[in-house]
C-alpha cells in the first residue's frame, strides 16, 4: 500500500517524469521505480521525502529518456498525449505541456532539460536542482543558462487567447474537411511547418514539411484519404485544441496546431497507434 508521501506527490512526480520523457508509459514506470525504492528505505532516515522522491523519479526518467534517444526512430517524433490531469495550476506548468515546448526540450541534453523543468516550470531553487542532478549549484545554473539559450529563439513571444486558438482551429478543420485550398491557405503562416509521427507503424511524412504550399498540398491529400472517416471530432491534446479523426469507432489520428493568434505556425499529426491506444476519444469540445 502506498504511503502518504507517495500518495501526495504522485501527480507531481508523474507530471515531471512525463515532461522529461514525453511518454506516458515511461513516466508511469519512472514513478513506479521511485515508489518501489521508497518502500525499501526507512522514512525516518530520509530528511526530506519530497526531495528524495523527486530525485529518484527524475533519475529514472532520465535513464528512460537516454534509452529512447539511443533507439532509432522512423521519421519525426511527437510526445504521447498526456492524461488530462497532467497539466497544472500555474501558467508555467500549462505552457510546458504544449507540443511546441516539449519539442524544444528535445534539443536539450538530459541535464539541461531537467534543470529547465525543475527551475523554470516546477519552481525549485538552484540548490535543490543541483542536488537532484548530483552537481554543484554552479553547474546546475550553467545547465539552466545553456537550456534557456538553446530555446530562446523558439519560445512564444506572447500568449494566444484560448478563444482565438479554438476559432482558428475550427477554420482550419473546416477548410481541410471541405478540401478548400483557398480557405486552408488563409489559416496558414507562410513558413508553417507540419510534423507527423507514424512511428513506422502508420503512414506519415518521414520528414518535416515546410511552407504553406507544401503543407496545403499534403493536407488536401489527407482530406481525400479521410473522406470516409466516421467523424472529425474536436478534443484536446496536451491542453491544446485538436481534431481526432475517428474511423469505425477507433481513433485513427490526432491533429493539433500552434499559432501566433492569426495564422497557424505549426501543425502536428499523430498516427503512431502505440501512442494513441491510451487515449480515449473524448466528448467533443464546445
TrEMBL record:
Species: Sandaracinobacteroides saxicola
Any GO molecular function: sigma factor activity
Positions of the RNA polymerase sigma factor 70 region 4 type domain: 99-150
Cited Pfam families: Sigma70_r2 (PF04542), Sigma70_r4_2 (PF08281)
Record-linked CDD domains: Sigma70_r4
Gene3D superfamilies cross-referenced by the UniProt entry: 1.10.1740.10, Winged helix-like DNA-binding domain superfamily/Winged helix DNA-binding domain (1.10.10.10)
PANTHER family associated with the record: ECF RNA POLYMERASE SIGMA FACTOR SIGJ, SIGMA 19 FACTOR
Segments forming domain RNA polymerase sigma-70 region: 8-71
Subunit details: Interacts transiently with the RNA polymerase catalytic core formed by RpoA, RpoB, RpoC and RpoZ (2 alpha, 1 beta, 1 beta' and 1 omega subunit) to form the RNA polymerase holoenzyme that can initiate transcription.
Biological-process GO terms, alphabetical: DNA-templated transcription initiation
NCBIfam families (alphabetical): sigma70-ECF
Name this protein carries in UniProt: Sigma-70 family RNA polymerase sigma factor
Amino acid at each position: 500500500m502506498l504511503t502518504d508521501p507517495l500518495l501526495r506527490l504522485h501527480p507531481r512526480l508523474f507530471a515531471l517524469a512525463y515532461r522529461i520523457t514525453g511518454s506516458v508509459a515511461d513516466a508511469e514506470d519512472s514513478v513506479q521505480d521511485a515508489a518501489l525504492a521508497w518502500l525499501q528505505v526507512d522514512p525516518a532516515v530520509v530528511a526530506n521525502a519530497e526531495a528524495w522522491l523527486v530525485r529518484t523519479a527524475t533519475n529514472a526518467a532520465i535513464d528512460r529518456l537516454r534509452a529512447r534517444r539511443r533507439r532509432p526512430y522512423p521519421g519525426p517524433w511527437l510526445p504521447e498525449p498526456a492524461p488530462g490531469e497532467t497539466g497544472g495550476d500555474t501558467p508555467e506548468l500549462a505552457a510546458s505541456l504544449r507540443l511546441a515546448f516539449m519539442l524544444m526540450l528535445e534539443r536539450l541534453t538530459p541535464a539541461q532539460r531537467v534543470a529547465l523543468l525543475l527551475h523554470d516550470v516546477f519552481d525549485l531553487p538552484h540548490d535543490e536542482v543541483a542536488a537532484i542532478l548530483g552537481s554543484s549549484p554552479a553547474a546546475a545554473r550553467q545547465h539552466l543558462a545553456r537550456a534557456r539559450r538553446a530555446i530562446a529563439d523558439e519560445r512564444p513571444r506572447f500568449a494566444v487567447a484560448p478563444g482565438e486558438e479554438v476559432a482558428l482551429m475550427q477554420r482550419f478543420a473546416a477548410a481541410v474537411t471541405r478540401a478548400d485550398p483557398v480557405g486552408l491557405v488563409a489559416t496558414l503562416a507562410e513558413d508553417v511547418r507540419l510534423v507527423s509521427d507514424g512511428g513506422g507503424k502508420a503512414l506519415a511524412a518521414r520528414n518535416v514539411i515546410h511552407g504553406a504550399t507544401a503543407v496545403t498540398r499534403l493536407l488536401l491529400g489527407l482530406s481525400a484519404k479521410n473522406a470516409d472517416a466516421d467523424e472529425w471530432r474536436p478534443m484536446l491534446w496536451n491542453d491544446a485544441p485538436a481534431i481526432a479523426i475517428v474511423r469505425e469507432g477507433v481513433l485513427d489520428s490526432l491533429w493539433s496546431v500552434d499559432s501566433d493568434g492569426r495564422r497557424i505556425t505549426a501543425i502536428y499529426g499523430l498516427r503512431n497507434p502505440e501512442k494513441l491506444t491510451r487515449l480515449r476519444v473524448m466528448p467533443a469540445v464546445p
